[in-house]
Amino acid sequence: MRYVMSRTGLSADVLRAWERRYGAVSPQRSPAGQRLYSDRDIARLLLLRRATLDGHSIGAIAPLDDRALEALLDTSPAAAESSDVDLAPRVHEAMSAVERLDAGALEATLRRAAMALGATTFVDAFAPRLLIEVGEHWHLGELGPAHEHLATSTMRRVLDWVIEAFVVAPRAPKLVVATPAGERHELGAMLVSAAAVQEGWRVIYLGADLPAAQIVHAASQVRARAVALSVVAAAGRGVTTELRAVARGLAEGTSLLLGGRAAEQVEAVPHARVLADIAALRRALRAIRSVSEPAAHPSES
């Protein structure tokens, strides 16, 4: 059971209760009576954990199949890029702190938002709206590099804090995250990293403005299942050249995912999938993981 606990972040008591009381999963048994959890069982437990973190009762969601759970998470107010009026004043408060270069006030505001909204809403809805606000004010000349650096460093600390509750298994699939050469804005890549950890991926975060050769080398070295690149402000032939070089260099079977406000403006990159938002990223990561064949993992009763 320790293996499954490390993969899902669920305690032994919770695992037993979900299995016996709610029938959430039905692991097979070895001849010695040990529970044998498949990768599919573990994936389902991760879905159930995410749904309970979003406020759903385990008793209400345990009867749902995996597709229904994914649909619930995709349409949940916590998973949608919401226009909820509760987000607007929180974003305004955060922007005010950025404008004042008040890192303490910004971090406190972000932590309050994460606690009030939940981890998924914070990553999928609140943080992207704040990212857009910071980017727009930067392009208008209303914010300078110091403001963006403060927002980036503070957001990184809060995102690290948010995802501490998500335990990633040592053998989890690996995702390399970066921004291509010419793209210096990394808040989008940081959100990708947080969402991927929540989805059970092991993230290798390389930061901003990285040449294609370095991205490809890192993906090869860690045997990444996927590479996710954020393109927020940079566009044009230079970035397209870099992205195409990454696509050409990746090993067969390594998926290339592109996202960010400027991703759709980039010329077509062979074998790359352009994602509209963090919710689409989550769906893509789940689809990539589902390709592998489930294997049984023994667990002591």
The succession of helices and strands, N to C, reads HHEEHHHHHHHEHEHEHEEHE
Q: Kindly report the CATH topology of the largest domain.
A: Rossmann fold
Which CATH top level class of the largest domain fits? Alpha Beta
Please give the number of β-strands: 8
Q: Supply the CATH architecture of the largest domain.
A: 3-Layer(aba) Sandwich
Shape field:
globular
Strands side by side in the biggest sheet: 4-3-5-6-7
Q: Please identify which CATH superfamily of the largest domain we are dealing with.
A: Cobalamin-binding domain
Strand content: 5-15%
Query: What class do helices, strands and sheet pairing give?
Result: alpha/beta
Radius of gyration: 20 Å
Could you report the average pLDDT, rounded to the nearest whole number?
85
Describe this structure in words.
The protein folds into 3 domains: 2-76, Multidrug-efflux Transporter Regulator, Chain: A, Domain 2; 87-164, Methionine synthase domain (Methyltransferase, Methionine Synthase (B12-binding Domains), Chain A, domain 1, Orthogonal Bundle); 170-290, Cobalamin-binding domain (Rossmann fold), CATH 3.40.50.280. It has 13 helices and 8 strands. Helix content is 53%, strand content 13%. The chain is globular and about 65 Å long. It starts with a helix and ends with a strand. Residues 78-83 and 293-298 have low confidence and may be disordered. The chain has 301 residues and is an alpha/beta fold. Strand 1 (28-29) and strand 2 (35-38) form a beta hairpin. The strands form 2 sheets. It has a 5-stranded parallel beta sheet, with helices on both faces. A 3-stranded antiparallel beta sheet has the order 1-2-8. The longest helix is centred in the middle third of the chain and has 21 residues, at 119-139.
